[in-house]
Amino acid sequence: MNAYFRKMKGGGKSPAMTPLANIFWSFIGAFAGIASLHFIHSSHIAATDINMIIGSFGASAVLVYGAIDSPLAQPRNLVGGHVLSALVGVFCYQFFAPYGLWLAGALAVASSIALMHLTKTLHPPGGATALIAVIGSPQLHETGYFFAVLPVGRGALILLFYALLINNIPRNRRYPKFWW
Questions:
Q1: From CA 111, how far away is CA 136, in angstroms rounded?
Q2: Which of 113, 110, 134, 132 has its CA nearest to residue 122?
Q3: Which of 8, 26, 74, 132 has the smallest C-beta neighbourhood within 10 Å, fewest atoms?
Q4: Please, are residues 65 and 167 in contact by the beta-carbon 8 Å criterion?
Q5: Is residue 180 pLDDT above 70, yes or no?
Q6: Binning pLDDT at 50, 70 and 90, where does residue 11 land?
Q7: Residue ranges of the domains in the chain?
Q8: Contact of 164 with 65, CB cutoff 8 Å
Q9: Between the CA of residue 28 and those of 6, 81, 126, 139, 161, what are the distances in Å?
Q10: Which residues contact 42 (CB under 8 A, 6 or more apart)?
Q11: DSSP run (H or E) holding 28
Q12: DSSP 8-state assignment for residue 170
């Protein structure tokens, strides 16, 4: 039992500070990506009940602009993780919410993690996307599986576009590391 609790002490060393140039490009990328989502929402979609801005996109911005070398930040993971998780979340809401949102939410997150593992699309913000599909507004629930297309699919592609554009400006940054 002591060995179990000793693991919780950690043992590694904290990573070095990120170079200021990388912080700058992370800032520029995140600003451009999220601002674009807001612009598209306010100029083209705000008249509908669909919201282009979901919280999990903020977490995706951290990965695709701030941790570009991570396998979790690659295009397959960004788009696939969000879209699959949105589909799982809608499914869980439709079939399990009558038994309790706690059950639908827990199944949505756990199932989306398992599916992302199976498809090699693990993207942590996908878990949030699955949960948003369950706990979202009545307007979101009315969109059904279209939620996976708009805002989720389109939003992930917009973030990817800016990740490709901005992360490759500096010589020392390269994105993506892989597509498939």
A1: 18
A2: 113
A3: 8
A4: yes
A5: yes
A6: confident
A7: 23-44+52-167
A8: no
A9: 41, 24, 23, 32, 13
A10: none
A11: helix 20-40
A12: S
Average pLDDT value for the chain: 95
Residue 176 has pLDDT above 90, yes or no: yes
Alpha carbon 151 to its chain's center:
12
Angle 125-135/101-119 helices, nearest 10 degrees?
Answer: 150
pTM over 0.70: yes
Residues of 145-165 as b/e, b for ≥16 C-beta within 10 angstroms? eebbeebbbebbebbbebbee
Asked if residues 108 and 89 have their Cβ atoms less than 8 Å apart, the reply is yes
What are the structure tokens assigned to 170, written together?
A: 């500096």
* pLDDT confidence bin for 86, thresholds 50/70/90: very high
Indicate the residue type of 134.
V
- Interhelix angle 125-135/81-96, nearest 10 degrees: 30
